[in-house]
Amino acid sequence: MPYILISTQIRMEIGPTIVGDESSDPALMEQLGASRRTVLGNNFSEYYVNEPPRVTLNKLENLGYRVISMTGVGQTLVWCLHKQ
């Protein structure tokens, strides 16, 4: 998977950071130290880390990913990364 989205709530800029969904590469999620959870009321799982986005972005850069876009959606910050 050459693309990955990570996100966090603005009020939670120190973490946790959402790093994947139930279809994400398990090996990559393990490298990031991510845990899988299902939030009450959702019918899907997500992977998260208890670190700020900055730490996660640094880890992904070391793995060869580059940020290609970033935006705010309501109270959520979202980064899109790509790996060649």
Automatic annotation (TrEMBL):
Listed InterPro entries: GFRP_sf, GTP_CycHdrlase_I_reg
GO molecular function: GTP cyclohydrolase binding
Main location: cytoplasm
GO BP term (any one): negative regulation of biosynthetic process
Keyword Cytoplasm: yes
Keyword Transmembrane helix: no
GO cellular component: cytosol; nuclear membrane
Top-level taxon in the UniProt lineage: Eukaryota
Record key words, sorted: Cytoplasm, Membrane, Nucleus
Location in or out of the cell: Cytoplasm, Cytosol; Nucleus membrane
Family: Belongs to the GFRP family.
Subunit structure: Homopentamer. Forms a complex with GCH1 where a GCH1 homodecamer is sandwiched by two GFRP homopentamers.
Job description of the protein: Mediates tetrahydrobiopterin inhibition of GTP cyclohydrolase 1.
Name assigned to this protein: GTP cyclohydrolase 1 feedback regulatory protein
